[in-house]
Amino acid sequence: MIEGEEGRKGAKRIQTYEEEVGGAMAMATTAGMSVRNVLWLWWKLLVLVSLTICVLAFLKLQNYSLSDSELSSSTSSISSRSRAVDYTGNPKVAFLFLVRRNLPLDFLWGNFFENADTGNFSIYVHSEPGFVFDESTTRSTFFYNRQLTNSIKVAWGESSMIQAEKLLLGTALDDPANQRFVLLSDSCVPLYNFSFIYSYLMASPRSFVDSFLDKKDVRYNPRMSPYIPMSKWRKGSQVIVPQSEL
Ligand SMILES: *[C@@H]1O[C@H](CO)[C@@H](O)[C@H](O)[C@H]1NC(C)=O
Ligand SMILES: *[C@@H]1O[C@H](CO)[C@@H](O)[C@H](O)[C@H]1NC(C)=O
């Protein structure tokens, strides 16, 4: 009996031991589970943080590219100018005609361009909006389709003239081959042949502005002083030849 009791006790002890071990094992499993849970949580947190950083970085990048494009749009004229300076191909002289309607002296200019190499010059015309240079209005084919598409209504002697000049220059600057710009009116005539003018302008590092002292001029208004003193008052025509670096 005792033996039997002992044996039962032993068995019970073993059972208890087993239970205990099982419990301990179960606890160990639970502990393992919770460690894994914590690790999983950390992992999730890490992924979340990295994702957030990624999104933030992406937004920041977008911001940068936005300000980049804003910058380039605001400095586009400058970059096209530096493109013109960097240009290494055959340079062109851009002839910019600012005219009221048609070109009355187109036949003279036609002869002038006749003796030029077509790769050495370009022509831009700013005339009344809607005016078309074709066989019905023009005697020289050089002026066909050379009118700016964005031309504006110009009033003589008003700031719209400057606006039109800027449109001409802006359009000519789009072609980096244009390295010299000759602004002309409809009453200008070429006094020299093309090759003379081309080599003269290309060889010169200067810009040209037509300006002279007119002793007989009566248009000076004393109210322009002191901004424009009488001694600085000059007369000039529309002709200017700026360098592309200007
Ligand atoms: C252009 O004019 C210059 C100077 O007037 C002259 O020496 C040259 O021979 C002319 N060239 C042509 C192609 O007519
Ligand atoms: C055209 O340009 C080339 C290269 O700049 C020059 O050698 C040639 O004399 C030019 N032609 C005329 C007609 O000016």
UniProtKB/TrEMBL annotation:
It is found in: Membrane. It comes from the Eukaryota. One of its GO terms (cellular component) is membrane. InterPro entries: BC10-like, Glyco_trans_14. The chain crosses the membrane at residues 40-59. The keyword Ribosomal protein does not apply. Coiled coil: none annotated. Signal peptide: none annotated. It is a single-pass type II membrane protein. Pfam families: Branch. Keywords: Glycoprotein, Glycosyltransferase, Membrane, Transferase, Transmembrane, Transmembrane helix. GO terms for molecular function: glycosyltransferase activity. This is Core-2/I-branching beta-1,6-N-acetylglucosaminyltransferase family protein. It comes from Solanum commersonii (Commerson's wild potato).
